């Protein structure tokens, strides 16, 4: 394999620009745009493994399943994850292939339906907090709890929702396949939505479970295992800021591992549901031996790799 390797994590929300652009075609167009930025870095000589979020897409699949439940069987959460990996992977894969054709790049692209193993003893299973699916009234929530064993919570007066655990990823099951494809020069789309969560039984057999794995944590693990030269988290902002939205807001260009840990520990700079997991994922990568990570938005990925923008994290 020639050239440096980058693992790029793009958000599932980046495929949906706003509430007026949520259709499959809208998502395809957004994927095509993001793929164009990645294609340019491939043209510059980078090898790439692409991870992506799937939160909104899994939400749509669950909603369709719920609406059709009077006539068809419902779709389990792990299967929703697999379905979304295929659909999003298809959009990114085809978009990259078309960009490569236009740019004269001779590279193959492959999507891998990826399982991510978690520990059955992960503390997250004792305190499920990740809301999924539609809102329900209390009667329906209690019925699902009794009949299906769901964990349900009341959500700020808006109704009841199912909640599931968000355990820490321990192994990317298809890592050997990802590694082999990258070594063969292919661009790989993998760990979609953090991967399909699975646990191993006493014989080592894998079983899908109802959980949600943070895609940045799974991407960080993948980057570590592959020995990536750069771990990129593509999000909605060009750079990371401390004191975001306040008079003393400060955009960050370069952050050391020690500084990143200090900012995170202060607990006031990064929102728990958005930027904080991204910073923790980068910390995990650097602590495990990684040397360089970047946070930026999709259009600025090539410029960030050239050192012109983005927030760069180093040991």
Give a written overview of the molecule:
The protein is an alpha/beta fold and 315 residues long. It has one domain: Carbamate kinase, CATH 3.40.1160. The protein is 38% helix and 23% strand. The chain is built from nine helices and 17 strands. It has an eight-stranded mixed sheet with strand order 3-9-2-1-12-16-17-15, sandwiched between helices. A four-stranded mixed sheet has the order 8-4-10-11. A hairpin with a 7-residue loop joins strand 13 (240-242) and strand 14 (250-252). The radius of gyration is 20 Å and the shape is globular. The mean pLDDT is 94.
Quick check: average pLDDT? 94
CATH superfamily: Acetylglutamate kinase-like
- Under the CATH scheme, which architecture would be assigned? 3-Layer(aba) Sandwich
Q: Beta fraction of the residues?
A: 15-25%
Q: Looking at CATH, which topology would you report?
A: Carbamate kinase
The succession of helices and strands, N to C, reads EHEHHEEEHEEEHEEEHEEEEHHEHE
- Please estimate the helix content: 25-40%
| Rg, Cα atoms, Å | 20 Å
Number of helices: 9
Q: Major sheet: size, sense and barrel closure? A: 8 strands, mixed
Q: What characteristic shape results from the CA principal axes? A: globular
Q: Would you report the number of β strands?
A: 17
Q: Name the strands of the widest sheet in spatial order.
A: 3-9-2-1-12-16-17-15
Separation, N- and C-terminal Cα atoms? 25 Å
